[in-house]
Amino acid sequence: MSSNIDYTSPSTQFTFDVNNSTLFKKDPQNYINILGVEQLNTLENTSLLDIFLSKDNVVEPHYHQNAAELVYCISGAAIVSILNPFTKKIENYPIKPGQVANVPQGWWHYEVATEDDTHLLAIFDAPTPEVILGSDILTFTPANIMAHTYCLDEKQWKKTIAPIVPSTYIGPPKNCNRVKSASEKQKESDCKCKCKHKPKSKPKQPNYMNPYPYHYPYVYPYGSYGSYY
User: How far apart are CA 77 and CA 199, in angstroms?
Assistant: First the structure.
């Protein structure tokens, strides 16, 4: 094992409290703690994010240019969605406690909590996980370039992305008052109508053979450059 660490130095660290290293906090139920070589100087090719989410909160679309990511579910439930660059398809992987999803280095992905009190551990094969965030791509790319490249109305594009906050990390924002589309409103109306006229039935017995009682693949209910440091 090759290493530049001086294990005899008094400054060498072998332990750290990740609770004291918050990367991002949206509210008391939605936040991310980080552990990398800057927190624990004996780390070599390992780092992690300790992620806490309530239902329907999203770790925004992003990719890690320097590391693969293994997402382990500690509690709650989530769906890890990955854009496979070879098939050009989004693949959705539901995980519950004890289950993992693997994201290869550089692949576009995001995580959506499907239960409250979801706790995920994201483990990286790098001393510091670098990241490109979807919110940063959208807000920092010049509007005239986006408009010219994709044949868009530049003013309309600026208006569309104006609410996006760079480095969102966990969405939607606390002050989100998104106007629902006509199709979403119609779907809600149809659901209420069906529920209103639905005859009463005996409660179903729990199906213990189905490990994923929520909808699959998950439909995102609302519809990122640099280092974490």
Answer: 31
Distances (CA, A) of 185 to 21, 44, 79, 132: 41, 51, 25, 33
Query: Consecutive 10-residue runs of the chain (229 residues): their mean pLDDT?
Result: 80 96 97 97 96 98 98 98 98 98 98 98 96 98 98 97 96 81 68 61 42 37 44
What residues contact residue 35 under an 8 Å CB cut-off, 6+ apart? 16, 18, 21, 43, 47, 48, 49, 50
Query: What amino acid is encoded at 213 in this protein?
Result: P
Sign of the alpha-carbon dihedral angle for 180, 185, 191, 193? positive
Q: What is the pTM of this model?
A: 0.79
Q: Name the nearest CA neighbour of 172 among 22, 25, 26.
A: 26
Q: Are 60 and 108 contacting, i.e. CB atoms less than 8 angstroms apart?
A: no
